[in-house]
Amino acid sequence: MENFTPYSALAGGALIGISCALLLFFNGRIAGISGIMNGAFSAPKNDRAWRLLFLAGLVVGGLFLQGLLPGFNTPRQGYPLALLGIGGFLVGFGARLANGCVSGHGVCGIARLSIRSIAATLTFIATGMITVYVIRHLLELAA
Amino acid sequence: MKTHLIALLSGILFGAGLALAHMVDPNKVQNFLDVTGHWDPSLLFVMIGALSVAMIAFKFILKRPAPLWATSFHLPQKTSIDPKLIAGAAIFGIGWGMSGYCPGPSVTGLSLFSSESVIMILTIYLGFFACHRLLDRP
C-alpha cells in the first residue's frame, strides 16, 4: 500500500453523498455526471441551465478547495497522450451505452440498491483493474 | 431559479468532495485499480463515505411523494441487466483505467488548470457523439 489517505477520502466521499442528497431532495435529480454532461447540450432547452450550473459548480468546488489548501492536488504531466485521448473516448462511449458512470451507477445507483447499478459498478471496476494491469505491468506504457 | 441555485451548490459540494478525496489526481485512481502493484484503497473509502450518506438520505427522500421544489423525481426506469449495460460498463472501465479519469474528475480537474482535463472533456464528448450515432441509427 502506498499514499493511502483514508480520512480525506471518507470526508470527500461524505461531501459527494451530501451533494447527491441535496440534488435529489430539492430537485428530484440524480447526480450522474455523464448524464448531466450529455444533457448539457442535447436535453430540451429548459432542461439545460441546471446542468451547466452543476458542471460549473464542479469546477468552482475544486477551485474552492485549491484556495483553501494550495498544492493539495497537482495536475499530472507527461502522461502518454494516446492513452488519455483513447481513454476519454471510451469513457464517454461506455458511459452513454451503460447510461451512467461512477457517480450515477457507483454512488446514486448503489444508494438506491439498484441491481443494474451494482452490476455496472462491479463490471467497470473489474475492467479498469485489468486495463491498469495491462498498461502498467504487461506493456509498461505508464508508470 | 431556486432549483438552479441547488444545482450550483450541489455541483460545488461534489467538486470540493472530489478534490478533497484526491480523486482529481488520475494517479490516485489508477493506484486504486492497480491491485497487483502498490495498491491504494483510498477510492474504496470515498465510496464508503459517499454511500453511507447517500443511502440513508435517499431512503428518507424517496419516501416522499415528490421532491421539495420539483413536481416529480427523475429516476432511471430501467431495472434489468442487459448486454448494453454490461458492454458499456466494460468499455467505460477500460477507458477509466487507461486515462485515470471518470467524468466528474475530468470536469473538476479544470480547477487545477490541467490540460489533461481539457483533452478528457473533449474526447468524452466525442465518445457521447459516437455512441449516439451508433444507437440512434434507424
Question: What's the short version?
Answer:
The complex is a heterodimer of chains A (143) and B (138). Chain A has 143 residues and is mainly alpha-helical.
Can you put this structure into words, describing what you see?
The complex is a heterodimer of chains A (143) and B (138). By secondary structure, chain A is mostly helical. Chain A is built from six helices and no strands. In chain A, helix 2 packs across helix 3 (49-68). Chain B is mainly α and 138 residues long. Chain B has six helices and no strands. The longest helix of chain B is centred in the C-terminal third of the chain and has 21 residues, at 115-135. The interface between A and B is large, with 110 and 118 residues.
Main sheet specs of chain A: none
Question: What is the first-to-last residue Cα distance of chain A?
Answer: 16 Å
Average residue pLDDT of chain A: 96
Element order of chain B: H for helix, E for strand: HHHHHH
Judging from the principal axes of the Cα atoms, what is the shape of chain A?
Answer: globular
Radius of gyration of chain B: 17 Å
The class by helix and strand makeup of chain B works out as mainly alpha
Main sheet properties of chain B: none
Quickly count the helices of chain B: 6
Radius of gyration of chain A: 17 Å
